[in-house]
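Hi Y.,

Following your request, here is the sequence exactly as I used it, all 511 residues.
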Amino acid sequence: MPSAPPHWINALLAPARYPHAATQVELLETHGAWVLLAGEHAYKIKKPVKLPFMDFSTLALRRAACEAEIRVNRRFERTDDPVRLYREVLPITGTADDPAWGSAAEHAFEFAVHMHRFDEAGRLDHLCQRGALTAEHLQALARRLAAFQASAAVATEPSPWGKPQAVLQWARDNLESLRLAPAQAASPAAVQTLAEWTESSFQALEFLLNRRRLEGRVREGHGDLHLANLVLIGDSVLPFDAIEFNDSLRWIDVASDLAFAWMDLQHQDRIGLASVLLSEWLDASGDVRAPQVLPFFAVYRALVRAKVAAIRLGQVDAASAEADTARAACSAYLALAQRMAHPPAPALVITHGLSGSGKTWASTRWLAGWSDGPAIRLRSDVERKRLHGLSALQTSGSQLQGGLYTPQSHGDNYASLLARARTLLAEGWTVLVDAAFLRQHERQAFAELAHAKGCPFHILACEAPVEVLRERITARQAGGRDASEATLDVLEQQLGWLEPLTADERGRCLP
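Below is the corresponding structure, written out as tokens. Let me know if you'd prefer a different format.
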């Protein structure tokens, strides 16, 4: 494993060696690549390394990895994206003393992935650190990821990808790497505790993991979807740098892909935004069993980052500032893995209000601000459609008191929300239920659930003048970008149903 860039990499720091404008060339380095930033262009060159999960030890392997990187990342590009990040594989020709960007692969002594250079300030980890990452950014990302996953290639039964024992082996490999890391990188006691948790959790989840695979939840995904591999360009959050070097790390359970970004938001101390991302993804994907496996995958992802930090520590001078950063990162990810494995006690929150009163807006803000452990929002508008086989934004065409809005359907919807809340609370999730809850008996059922589970119960009550409700409902119907299908007729019906909060319920209301 090289400890310093080779001579020809340093030679490529000269702007004159590029066929386009560049006033200076910057060099970035990871455990597996050198990245040259020149003007509006970026060139990613694989290091000649061989690790248990990555083999770039020959020129042929590095060229194949470059070609694979173009293919797997272009799958995430959409026609409405502001830029195309991945351009081509470029040969590096000439000599080590006089390297040049060429076109003849047969004369290449190395290869690079040619990319559009984006503003590093737009990376989601940097946005997070500046406090500029919003709930809206993450909701858009969640919908984009769910849509991509819905059309991604599925691991069929003959393939080896995503089988439970393989999932466990990767987790064990992470832990073994951390056991072998420099003593100052990882606490042996912490690694052992997490190893025991991993084994016991896997035993409880093995059947479900296999079931999810048989249901088509293992797909060709990204594999490395932490915040530094997501960038905001314009109004779009674009994934990049998907894993190309190991198929088994890319063909994974869809919840494992989502878990990386969810985990990394918590690493950045944005627990509420992590909950927004997860809740929106659950609504968009309809993957109601994902919360059962998500903590297992998230702990695994935290240990991946700890391992990467430990690997980097072995590549740099132990007395350097970069070594201090790597040590701190390894320790922080281990601590996060412990917190995710043992979350705090949950709470149950419901909304209350007529259509158009701002329940979804307010619940999103509450969710984004909640920092006391992992939380999930359940929306009655989304659940109603899911129960009838529709996606969140599909139109049902139902009339008042018909279709999805019969008394029977209404009762089934609240019963399903109650059952899901019960399951999630038992698994340690704080639950926020976004529904009208106009009738006292509907609210009482959830209050009794909270009492039975021994968890706090709160109400997020929303109000607005009737004329404002009518304006909002009319605007929402015209926009067509929300799961709610409430009409003005529905509002009139609700006004007749509304049962005001009792004195006890008012005492449980959140600000």
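Residues 188-214 form the longest helix (27 residues).

Thanks again,
Q.
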